[in-house]
Amino acid sequence: EAQVTQNPRYLITVTGKKLTVTCSQNMNHEYMSWYRQDPGLGLRQIYYSMNVEVTDKGDVPEGYKVSRKEKRNFPLILESPSPNQTSLYFCATEKTGTGATGELFFGEGSRLTVL
Amino acid sequence: GQNIDQPTEMTATEGAIVQINCTYQTSGFNGLFWYQQHAGEAPTFLSYNVLDGLEEKGRFSSFLSRSKGYSYLLLKELQMKDSASYLCARSGYALNFGKGTSLLVTP
Question: Which of the four pLDDT bands, split at 50, 70 and 90, describes residue A97?
């Protein structure tokens, strides 16, 4: 079954304690991205990756890092989380190249609370 | 981003028809997506319009006017399970989402 898997699904942490949200996909998609979703603001892109070792900033990259060492994984790193990073995070993948439709396939979401 | 506007909330009755509008900035525009998102879940793809006109897919249809920067999602024969947030997303230099329209279907 085609899947985009995020972990953890829920996390409560404290300010300044580094954390990583993992994202793994078995769809062999080259494009992966991270979004955060906040009430009244909608989905906003944090970072995206067109391919292995290629990453770029989205609309709201401040306070986040990513890496793309292999095609299937695209972890989101919060080096020093702050309360304003409390949000619902989604990882997404997209098929690019021949047969591409532009459709995003989302993970189930990770709800992060920073105290 | 990209001035994507859609109503915040809508309410409709089971069995009825509802139209959710979306306007967007036309410069650099490629296409328009609609996603459905139930509370606490991930968005799921509904439609993608590139050309002008109406595309029908079962109870859901999506319309696009490129020159007017306008799209709508039409939901027919509403069911209670259609209560969800509907996200309009503009594809251009990047993919930008609107803030979503929360649809409540009442008995």
Answer: confident
